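hiii so um. not sure if this is the right channel but i have a protein structure encoded as tokens and i wanna go backwards to a sequence. like what aa goes where. can anyone help
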């Protein structure tokens, strides 16, 4: 008796082992069924092995990193901030800025000259300059060329000499030769920006301002005390969290901490006064 084959049906091709080489088309169109079919064909063990690998050391490292990031972004508590600045005050009750000056005018000039330069380098140049020109009138009388000769060891000295003469002339013409006592007026002077204004207001007039230089910017971000993408963000963040009783000297403590302890490349975490409070995930203690 001959076999009767229904029209339209085709026997599935089989391998020598008698199993289907490929799943039916109806399964190929359905992801869940396709996964099930692949498992039947012996592909599941490989997938499980790959899954186990992904849950190995790399995964544990990621979890550790997440914990560190969580700690780094956790804001300081008011008690921690107070404790940090209490330690700074106990260690150095009367911190002083390292720019040498004779009066508010020479302080202003020194800060303008310190942009992209070290305080030590500025002091070396201004000792002789301030000995002959400690007022706007005397500086203008020297002239731009002579001022250049005095400060030629400082970076960008040509443009800075021009600014020193220009700001001196403006002080004479608009401020009766006196350094103004508002941020906006100081910022209106050639070569003076927000940081310059904050330093002068704080050091010359005792204002509770926060001057953010590279050191303060690094400390604010690295410790998590006042993280920010710009100096202004860090400045405002520090002003929000630091208690008023510490604000007169706060920027000096932070500058000195960044300059001598919380160094850019090799921070000295082992001698840091606030290493137990610091949020930096890479600290060495």
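sure thing!! here u go:
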């Amino acid at each position: 008796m001959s076999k009767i084959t229904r029209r339209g049906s085709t026997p599935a091709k089989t391998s020598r082992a008698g199993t289907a080489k490929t799943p039916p088309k109806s399964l190929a169109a359905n992801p869940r069924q396709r996964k099930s079919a692949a498992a039947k064909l012996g592909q599941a063990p490989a997938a499980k092995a790959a899954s186990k690998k992904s849950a190995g050391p790399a995964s544990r490292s990621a979890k550790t990193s997440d914990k560190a990031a969580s700690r780094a972004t956790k804001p300081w508590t008011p008690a921690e901030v107070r404790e940090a600045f209490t330690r700074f005050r106990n260690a150095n009750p009367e911190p002083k800025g390292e720019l040498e000056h004779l009066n508010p005018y020479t302080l202003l000039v020194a800060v303008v000259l310190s942009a992209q330069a070290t305080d030590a380098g500025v002091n070396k140049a201004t000792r002789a300059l301030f000995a002959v020109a400690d007022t706007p009138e005397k500086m203008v009388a020297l002239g731009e060329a002579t001022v250049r000769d005095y400060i030629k060891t400082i970076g960008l000295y040509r443009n800075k000499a021009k600014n020193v003469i220009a700001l001196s002339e403006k002080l004479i013409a608009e401020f009766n030769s006196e350094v103004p006592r508002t941020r906006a007026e100081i910022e209106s002077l050639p070569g003076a920006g927000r940081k310059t204004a904050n330093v002068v207001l704080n050091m010359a007039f005792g204002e509770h301002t926060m001057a953010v230089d590279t050191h303060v910017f690094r400390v604010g971000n690295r410790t998590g005390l006042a993280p920010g993408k710009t100096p202004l963000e860090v400045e405002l963040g520090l002003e929000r969290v630091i208690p008023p009783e510490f604000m007169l000297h706060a920027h000096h403590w932070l500058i000195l901490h960044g300059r001598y302890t919380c160094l850019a490349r090799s921070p000295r975490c082992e001698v840091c006064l606030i290493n137990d409070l610091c949020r930096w995930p890479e600290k060495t203690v």
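oh and The chain has two domains: 68-95+208-285, 98-207.
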